[in-house]
Design a protein that fits this description.
By secondary structure, this protein is an all-alpha fold. The protein has helices at 15-27, 32-42, 46-64, 72-86.
């Protein structure tokens, strides 16, 4: 039985251990055996691979610490949508 068998179960109630495993993997602190198991899982799981790729890109962008400007119309739409979500 896999030591990270929970990684194959993508139900909402299992999200915390899955995210903890993904974070350990991305941070390079996962045990080698578990890392190998996760990499085997990633070969057949596009959703998990997308999460990892997105997390890595987010970390890279954050580390670059470059200010990005967005068009005013996009800025206004984003703020409107965030405000609507906040008020729900």
């Amino acid at each position: 039985m896999s030591r990270i068998s929970f990684i194959h179960d993508h139900r909402h109630e299992n999200v915390r251990p899955v995210l903890e495993a993904i974070n350990a993997y991305v941070d390079g602190v996962m045990e080698p055996l578990l890392c190998k198991e996760l990499e085997e899982h990633l070969k057949g799981c596009d959703p998990c691979q997308i999460v990892i790729d997105t997390l890595k890109m987010t970390i890279t962008l954050f580390k670059e610490n470059v200010e990005h400007t967005i068009p005013l119309d996009v800025h206004a739409r984003l703020h409107r949508m965030l405000k609507e979500e906040w008020n729900k």
